[in-house]
Design goal:
This protein has a seven-stranded mixed beta sheet with strand order 1-7-6-2-5-3-4, with helices on both faces. The relative contact order is 0.12. It is globular and about 60 Å long. Helices cover about 55% and strands about 10% of the residues. Helix 6 links the parallel strand 3 and strand 4. The mean pLDDT is about 95. The chain is built from 16 helices and seven strands. The chain has two domains: about 270 residues, 3-Layer(aba) Sandwich (Glycerol-3-phosphate (1)-acyltransferase), CATH 3.40.1130; about 70 residues, no CATH class. The protein is α/β, with parallel strands linked by helices.
């Protein structure tokens, strides 16, 4: 197993580094601006004093991040619920792998659920493309995140993949620290959540033994995340529109920051997280003579199945499914008020994009209907499967 020293540029800060980084962070003017924006009325001097008294990422998450996220849920949602903690043990570490809706909040609210039930928070994978300032990089590593290097050429990308895989195995096996990672690079723009084969292959680079042994070493535990409303829905639909006009369109760093802010501060309706059982037994039961690709595809299929089967479906999903498919299949799952409320929400979100042509508005509307109908479509498929 690779030495921890080789992970120094990607791992969370250790306790020896933590205090110096805290002091540096609270002296950063941009950090002060962020804190005063997301915590209106905060006494920043008192807040900094509390920060200086922290000793570890666990204390930072427990005493700073958790209370703020709970207050945020009160302000920007109609409630945060979770289930499935009976499937995990206090003395075991896991690789939580989930669908990816929000850049910041997916892993954050999973950590809130864990902390509320006296489990340690998990380390969080975050892409280097989002760390556009040094202070942002410091802040996420203070918060127990580790860095996924992106945008590297050739051999550097391969070296980074080996390093990342080795670190994840190291954290789970040697440090007894759980990890959260999204099932794919980047958010699923149309909510058609599918596990990326390249991600699972990367995770097989570390560890020892057969492919099945390397995967069971990580204790994959799928997590299904359901937001009633996605604050970034119209932004995602607008990105589809831009790419339809220019296939080479790429978001800017400014776009990423806007998505982060919108996702954090925007209205989410109801939020539900479902932790599903670890799939170690499933992987152990696969044909031991199967080739690598067969094992990988079976694991991917199970992760997708667990995520899809455990979505929380809301009235808006049923409305969107019927409208997108031009049917009344689920008309008994919502009433006229539910339908009107959902469509008013969609209109309000599209209006935030500014003036659109009739054709562009129709395109964005259709993409948003697809976005809200896909979780239901995939849940229906999963319910018909036996794995």
């Amino acid at each position: 197993m690779t030495d921890r020293h080789n992970f120094d540029d990607i791992r969370p800060f250790n306790e020896e580094e933590f205090r110096d980084k805290i002091v540096k962070l609270i002296e950063e003017p941009y950090f002060k601006g962020i804190i005063t924006a997301v915590m209106p009325g905060v006494d920043y001097d008192a807040f900094c004093q509390r920060m200086r008294g922290l000793r570890s990422a666990n204390e930072f998450q427990q005493y700073i991040i958790r209370p703020w996220l709970e207050q945020l849920a009160d302000k920007t949602s109609d409630g945060f619920t979770y289930e499935g903690l009976e499937y995990i043990s206090h003395d075991k570490s896991y690789l939580y792998i989930s669908n990816h809706r929000d850049i910041v909040l997916d892993a954050s609210y999973l950590c809130v659920a864990l902390l509320k039930e006296n489990y340690p928070a998990c380390q969080i994978a975050i892409g280097s493309n989002l760390l556009i300032y040094e202070w942002i990089c410091d802040m996420v590593r203070i918060n127990g995140s580790f860095i996924v290097k992106r945008g590297l050429p050739g051999h550097q990308a391969l070296d980074a993949a080996y390093q990342l895989s080795a670190y994840i195995h190291y954290a789970i096996q040697k440090c007894n620290s759980s990890i959260w990672i999204a099932q794919r690079e980047g958010r699923s723009k149309d909510s058609n959540d599918c596990t990326q084969e390249a991600l699972i292959k990367m995770l097989c680079l570390g560890g020892e033994g057969s492919i099945a042994q390397r995967l069971t070493e990580l204790h994959f535990t799928p997590v299904s995340i359901s937001y009633e409303y996605d604050p970034c829905d119209s932004l995602k639909a607008y990105e589809f529109l831009q790419k339809s006009k220019n296939p080479d369109f790429k978001k800017s760093q400014r776009d990423d920051l806007k998505s982060m802010e919108t996702g954090i501060m925007g209205y989410k309706g109801r939020m539900h997280f479902c932790i599903t059982p670890c799939i170690d037994d499933y992987i152990a039961g696969l044909d031991p003579t199967a080739n690598k690709n067969t094992v990988l595809q079976a694991v991917i299929k199970m992760i997708d199945h667990r995520i899809h089967a455990n979505y929380r479906i809301y009235e808006g999903n049923y409305v969107a499914y019927d409208l997108y498919n031009q049917c009344n299949r689920f008309a008994d799952r919502y009433d006229d008020n539910d339908k009107q409320r959902f469509l008013q929400y969609i209109d309000k979100q599209i209006a935030k994009l500014g003036d659109l042509t009739a054709d562009d508005r129709a395109f964005v509307y259709e993409k948003m209907m697809l976005m809200y109908s896909n979780p239901l479509k995939n849940k229906l498929i999963a319910q018909e499967q036996e794995l």
